[in-house]
Amino acid sequence: MAPAKAPEDDPITASYDVYLTPSQQEQLYLLQYLNRSRDRPYSQHYGARPTDLRIKPKSGYLELEVSLSTEFNFNKYQGLKWGDALQTARTIQNEGATYGPAAGLGAPRRGLGSRGPLKDKADRELQISNDLTEFKRAEDEGKVMHKQTLGGQIMRHEDAAAGQALPVYYLGAFQGDQLHLSKVDGTIQMRPQFHHIDAEEHRNRLATKKALDAEGDARPPPAARGLQQSYKPETEDKDKDAPERKMRKALQDAEEESWVPLDYVDEAEDTAYEAFNEKMFLHNVDNAPKLKSTMDEEQLLDAVSGPSYEGSGRKKRRPRKRRGGQGGDEGLEEEEEAVVAAGEALPAEEVIGAVDDEDAMDGVVATA
Fold first, then answer.
1. Is the pTM of this model over 0.70?
2. Residue 92 and residue 156: Cα distance in Å, rounded?
3. How far is 321 from 264, CA to CA, in rounded Å?
């Protein structure tokens, strides 16, 4: 069958020379905001400029905070309540008031609850009521939660060599008839983080425990009980590469690692334009070496095609016997072997035969 001709109404309108920029000392990450429309990015132009940016480079987590307007559509009471919960979390949980996988799902730090008394419900409500009357002052003192936290885990593209099905992205920058490509080191899917909800729940549990401990002081101590001790010998861990062990190690690293603050530069600032022109282009294009592929055509097809599975080829069928004799069986077997040798991937359904007229259809093979 002759290949179809390309339509004449779709001609080539432009051609570009493609260049690869050298590896940068800095890491280039692609941030994907899944809950934000493309036409309203987080930037100064749309009144949603990120203020704080932090990263855990070893465990691979990144978070940023975007300021919210407290003048319109803002619940001041909840802002003060969650702000108090986050202040408490910075004392009893960690300095960043972070919960979830980014904090390693870790337990609260011991001995830090004694730094300051935990206000009971009545004292807390009184404090929030007083701050509501002078909300602006409370906001300036940092008592109001007026920031939205977005974060995610870094999917490093260098892990694709280890067998993980991770994407490989390049950022393209046009300059005349040239296209300059810079490899992305990783992608991060930025989702809303609800640390304030976890902090409020954590604070409520501590308040309940404190009230129960106060009631328990008046009760008599429990009777002593005998405990039976057992010894378990240490054995060599044979499942060092088990998924549970890797997950435990990753959470432990995230809990122990501290956040590293970063400076955020808005896309409209001059610093962003200077970095774009310096990092995203190959300046000496005249002396750039030409790219040469290390794959032949067969290796390229294997790389871009799906995974192959053993045993998926077409198996040879046993020839059917003729009615009333064995004649013609050898010719049918030789023909089937030739078909199998020519294309191992032919399914068994392509060997057809009429049920009612086997004599007429024996040896007929459809190879469409």
1. no
2. 32
3. 79
